TrEMBL record:
<feature type="region of interest" description="Disordered">
    <location>
        <begin position="85"/>
        <end position="104"/>
    </location>
</feature>
<dbReference type="InterPro" id="IPR004843">
    <property type="entry name" value="Calcineurin-like_PHP"/>
</dbReference>
<feature type="domain" description="Calcineurin-like phosphoesterase">
    <location>
        <begin position="162"/>
        <end position="468"/>
    </location>
</feature>
<protein>
    <submittedName>
        <fullName>Metallophosphoesterase</fullName>
    </submittedName>
</protein>
<dbReference type="InterPro" id="IPR039331">
    <property type="entry name" value="PAPs-like"/>
</dbReference>
<dbReference type="Pfam" id="PF00149">
    <property type="entry name" value="Metallophos"/>
</dbReference>
<keyword id="KW-0732">Signal</keyword>
<dbReference type="InterPro" id="IPR029052">
    <property type="entry name" value="Metallo-depent_PP-like"/>
</dbReference>
Length: 580
């Protein structure tokens, strides 16, 4: 009996010891208790194809223990992912995510959100046929989750006919999901996506990329997993976006919405977004240390994507060959500020009255983020690129950036030039007013960049920013396409409604038309009628969404429109032009 009790006591002691060790191990190993099955935060998507490889990327909300891509016949080959954590993604009082349906319900200020990014390079590809792939993430508790199976390919060889989607300015706008759904229904599988900037509204707000409650976040729309409802005459229609970037690599340029301002200084992420501060002023006020945090950054954008790089500009400007195309991507975007001239406006043309004595609070007008004027690092790089054999020998030469060089839209005014600051002081040297001017003759795109592109025989310049569809043709035959009436519009100013511009200096601030002197081209197939019934050369609509497809086999760029207020209506091809 005694021996029996002793044995029971020993067993009990051992049991308690095992429990204690488990608890201690659990605490020190950082293992969390997970209440639900693991999920991927996005489907996988493709980036940076080369002649024999492509990158597969995806995101989770757990660090996990193993992440890999299974690919090839019967998915028997494996590529192991490299995992990193996004450093600046946060949610705040204006996020619409999880239980926060209204401002401030959950978050009272910006709060870090833990998101891990997984990237694997799939190698040994020949390009003869597309290869199946699937990603799997294993959580710390050993439970795993796999994506559906998609297909990947290396970069296409010259001569391969390609369909390339031209898009921009998604920003969770109301028509995005419908637009991308119609792309897939109309064009089918595209071979690449070119996005001319403005992916989301506020780059550091995680939910805008992944899971905004409105159902129109960036990745869900481009992956066919959106759920954006439109209420038309009391009838609800759901648009899902398109399953696009799981199969097609995406190349992007930086728009103003990829740039975040001074870090941690505002009360909300919106305040931070609006608080881009010129680097030379930041140097003076704060010194070189933490210059990025005291000015502006594109960290989240650069952490999310893996793009081609240039030695001079990294991912911010680059060139890439893709099939028959040489695509040159520039960093041409500036801080957007209000045209409002009120005392309260920290705007394009003035500082607000209450800030006048405090330059730390000034907005400094429409700050250009990366120099592009003649002689700048970016300009010199562009000049070199346009003289490279890769560029010269390409059948198609296309340049993509965010800011419009020709447009009927709002954002083309004022000129793309550094704001000229004019400070007026009273007798006591106190600041009375701070104003900004933008001389049109100093527009860096028109004065410096476009002549370079014309001389290099670029066939098409593709851009966004004004949320409008319109196109132009220069005398030398270079095409200009702005296909950014994707999710909504900011209006067209050809006749009637005028841009909000300063009353003087008419020569610098055009209220109507293309300030840079080209006539818009009337769509060749089915232009929309204006109020007077006559055809108009643009689409600026919150019902009508537009997209364009560059078909390299046919040498055409075709544009399509879809009326989201008539969910059962057909997509209409309304314009097509040929690249010489
Ligand atoms: Fe935009
Ligand atoms: Fe923009």
């Amino acid at each position: 009996m005694l021996r029996y009790l002793t044995k029971r006591k020993i067993l009990a002691a051992l049991f308690i010891l095992v429990i204690c060790l488990s608890v201690v191990y659990g605490c020190f190993s950082g293992q969390k208790a997970f209440s639900s099955a693991p999920q991927l935060l996005t489907d996988p998507f493709l980036q940076l194809p080369t002649q024999s490889s492509v990158r597969v990327l995806w995101f989770t909300e757990f660090a996990g223990s193993k992440h890999n891509v299974a690919y090839g016949d019967n998915l028997q080959q494996t590529a192991v992912a490299n995992t990193t954590k996004l450093s600046r993604t946060r949610e705040d009082q204006e996020s619409k995510v999880g239980n926060q349906k209204e401002n401030g319900q959950v978050y009272k200020q910006p709060v870090s959100r833990d998101i891990w990014r997984h990237e694997a390079q799939v190698v040994g590809l020949t390009g003869l046929k597309r290869v199946s792939y699937r990603v799997t993430s294993v959580r710390e508790d050993g439970k795993s989750i796999s994506s559906n199976t998609f297909t990947l390919a290396p970069t296409p060889t010259p001569g391969t006919p390609l369909k390339i989607l031209l898009t921009s300015d998604h920003q969770l706008k109301p028509m995005i999901a419908a637009n991308l759904q119609k792309v897939v229904e109309t064009v089918g599988k595209v071979d690449a996506v070119w996005l001319a900037g403005d992916t989301v509204n506020i780059a550091d707000r995680a939910s805008e990329w992944f899971d905004d409650n409105g159902g129109g976040a960036f990745f869900p729309c481009l992956q066919g997993r959106a759920k954006f409802e439109r209420d038309v005459n009391g009838k609800k229609t759901s648009f899902l976006g398109g399953e696009i970037i799981q199969h097609a690599p995406m190349f992007t340029s930086i728009g103003n919405h990829e740039v975040m301002g001074r870090f941690g200084k505002g009360g909300s992420l919106g305040d931070e977004f609006n608080d881009a501060f010129p680097r030379p002023v930041a140097m003076k006020l704060y010194g070189e240390k933490s210059l990025k945090d005291n000015s502006y950054n594109t960290d989240t954008y650069e952490e999310i994507f893996t793009l081609p790089e240039s030695k001079e500009g990294g991912e911010s400007y680059y060139a890439v060959s893709f099939g028959d195309v040489r695509l040159v991507v520039l960093y041409a975007t500036n801080m957007w500020r209000t045209p409002n001239m009120d005392a309260e406006a920290r705007g394009k043309y003035r500082e607000r009255d209450k800030d006048l004595q405090n330059p730390e609070n000034w907005g400094y007008g429409q700050v250009i983020f990366e120099p592009i004027a003649k002689g700048s690092k970016q300009y010199n790089w562009l000049e070199k690129e346009l003289n490279s054999p890769e560029f010269k020998q390409a059948k198609y030469k296309v340049v993509m950036f965010h800011h419009p060089p020709h447009s009927l839209g709002d954002n083309i005014v004022p000129a793309y030039t550094n704001p000229v600051q004019i400070i007026e002081r009273d007798a006591n040297r106190n600041v009375k007013t701070v104003r900004y001017k933008y001389p049109k003759k100093s527009d860096y795109l028109i004065r410096d960049v476009i002549p370079l592109l014309e001389a290099a025989k670029v066939q098409m310049v593709f851009y966004g920013h004004s949320h409008i569809w319109n196109r132009f043709l220069s005398q030398s035959g270079m095409h200009f396409l702005e296909t950014s009436n994707v999710g909504n519009t900011y209006g067209a100013f050809l006749s009637g409604d005028k841009r909000s511009v300063p009353s003087g200096d008419k020569k610098d601030y055009a209220a109507l038309g293309d300030p840079n002197g080209l006539e818009p081209v009337l769509p060749t197939i089915a232009p929309l009628p204006g109020k007077d019934g006559k055809p108009i050369p643009y689409i600026a609509s919150n019902d009508m969404t537009a997209f364009s497809n560059f078909d390299t086999g046919m040498a055409t760029v075709s544009s399509y429109r879809f009326d989201t207020s008539q969910p059962d209506s057909k997509v209409v091809k309304f314009d097509e032009f040929q690249l010489r």
